[in-house]
User: Fold Flavoprotein, HI0933 family from Dokdonella immobilis.
Amino acid sequence: MIIGGGAAGLMCALTAGRRGKRVRVIEHANRVGKKILMSGGGRCNFTNTGTSPTNFLSANPHFCKSALARYTPADFIDMVDSHRIAWHEKELGQLFCDVSSKQIVGMLLEECAQAGVRIDVGCKVDAVHRVGGGFRIETGPGEIECPALVVATGGLSIPSMGATGFGYDLARQFGHDVLPVRAGLVPLTLSGKHHERLQDLSGVALPVESRCNGASFRADLLITHRGLSGPAVLQISSYWQPGDDLRLDLLPDSEAFEFLRSQQRERPAAELRTVLGEVLPRRFAQRLCEVWFGNKPMKQWRETELREIADQLKAWPVVASGTEGYRTAEVTLGGVDTTQLSSSTMQSKQVDGLYFIGEVVDVTGHLGGYNFQWAWASGHAAGMAL
Assistant:
């Protein structure tokens, strides 16, 4: 019995079904794979060829190693290729469907059908009880008994897609600890003067390097009407919490001070906002000069002033007030404590026959297909053990 028809649940189901197990998936939404369908702009960033344990956050960073090693991106690509689904690679090993994410859901459903897996949608679980060596699940249509139960209910991100905290409640019911959860891979919000200074620049984007708590990411920044987004911010959001020091390198490909000094020598009459407007979006460069740097011809800046400006360009402070929360978060950080699970099978160390896989577990990937690879790998690990 698998509760949850998302990426991890379906992978677990087809894996166990192929091994001759009788498998039933129950999904409370009206269809399976909703997050798969909406991912990657409708094209599903289904894995990342560069996946390694370093791409994941967890209180127990070694936990993900076993599952990831035994089911790799190449393994999933083989299944995609066997279904003749065309795909392409974007930057940094990110793989997307050429046509539609519906193809990935269709592939998983076809594999489940071939393996004899039963899938019930619109089926809400009301209660779960331990009965003898197995479980009794109370659902709207009736009671179901099973010797093994897999919890693949996901996290709290994107509640409009049906996300709930049911999996965490179930874990606690059976004596598991649940580490604090929060939104991850999520836009940051600004307030007060920080918001006022940037809100009319909504839509402006630029390449940056975001840095916080020892982590750094080179990617694009996007200014929004609520704050900051784009891959650079989504990535660093998983490492940031209110009050933490967050910096952006606005010129990640150049030595800012040397650039300013060369411009001072070569274009002494040019104003700072003009010079910066040639290496940054013009409106953004103008706002930097209006609010932070000031503006005058390059020949009028002292060396110490240029060095201060360069330092700010290379470590521009962001004072975020919070995040947009689960409403737009791609993942949930935290979850079921992995110290109480087997890293090779995903089975509970406390309750025989109880498994936790996917996002409900305290393993969270970076942006770029890593969370899907964790879903495939953890689902496969449990499916091979059932």
Notes: The radius of gyration is 24 Å. The chain has two domains: 2-183+332-385, 188-323.
